[in-house]
Amino acid sequence: MTHKKFDHAIVIGGSIAGLTAARVLTDYFAQVTVIERDHLQGMTDFRKGVPQARHAHGLMLRGLRLLDQMFPGLEQELLAGGAIQVDPGVEQDAFIQGQWLPRFETDLRPIGCSRVLLEQTIYQQASRHPQISIREGYEVQELLTDEGRTKATGVVCRARTPAAAAETLLADLIVDASGRSSNTPEWLAQLGYTPPKESVVNSFPGYSTRIYERPANFTGTWKVLIVFPVPPDRKRGGVIFPLEGNRWHVTLFGMMKDHPPTDEAGYLTFAQSLPSLRVYEAIEQARPLSAISGYRQAENRLYHYDQLPRYLEHFIVIGDAVYALNPVYGQGMTVAAMGSTKLAECLQSFQGKENLIGLAAQFQKALGKIVAGPWQMATGEDMRWLNAEGGQALDFPTRLIQKYMNLVVLAIGQNPKVTAQFFRVLQMVDEPTVLFKPAMMLEILRTVYRIKRAQKTAPGDAAALQPTTG
Fold this sequence. Notes:
The protein has 470 residues and is α+β, with helices and mostly antiparallel strands.
């Protein structure tokens, strides 16, 4: 068991980022207090503090594995609660760049479940931990520092009830995991620190979501159905994810302000207009179990805490308070778990020291490196859309990578070896760099050459190259 040198840590926010941070902090602090605005105990519906939670979520396999390491038995608890295991090679039909991916068995087993089930399962484990105290229905009003304003020393918080008195909590470390509404930039400015620079890349995505009962007479062999839009002009897509309780989580989305409606007729008409009719055909006769919910605040937003000229010691920022990625790429929850894992690694280097001076700079720079890949992927894809805002003009290396990735997508329609590696990258189990290793590049280029040659010599039969998915 890790020796606990420090007494108390405070985590602002009971999000997945906040609760995973709280869990790793218990290895280095005697007590951890989580301060959360919402009431999490017994939550049965999507909570107000996570407006995007109503929409389909994909927990990547890497994220699931990290969560199960932090909260042993979590995956089994999710499965016992009705979560569904999915082999993405056999039980997922994905329409990417105008083609259906081939089917084949993999050793990957991510799960599908509601954000409610996932958060409640994590919450239950965290709340049972003897070193974690969760203050629900509280908000942080002020960040406290020492007299010289060099390090954080605590917070002032208050219950969100009428006439509640302010309370002061002191701590050795403050972690801001409060999400997109984080007050840290304002707090830093008030304390005389330079707030972080902000980057925003916006392809103006919009989502509309409804939960359906899975039809009793459904005969399809897929558990997950994904239809991605195709830049630069086919802007519409949709996904169907399985939920516990024999339900489907159906999210339609459109890029560049081509947003799906939230009325009944408009929703179904939009589904009919996707590059494939399969989403519409699945839900046409399915029984709706919820209203249609819309979401439009889905731009990519990054605060560059890794580039600050000076850091407030004993204070770090994590999760959506640092980065917010377009949800369509499904990276957010996994990156949150990766960030908390990195926090544990950074804290390990402070074992035996008297204080945490230097942790803020070390962690924020390390987190910046973790976020760089997902940020580049999300914004690079979003910048494929004409008139997307905020991103810089793509340089030659980035354009070259995009062209190569187009070849990768073409190859996965025909080469199981490439497809297997592509799925491992999609699930964030392997880094994207594996697709650029010489042996894999040769495999991809040979496959593309074969496809192009077949199209050139027998263009009328080119469609035969496209595998079926059943």
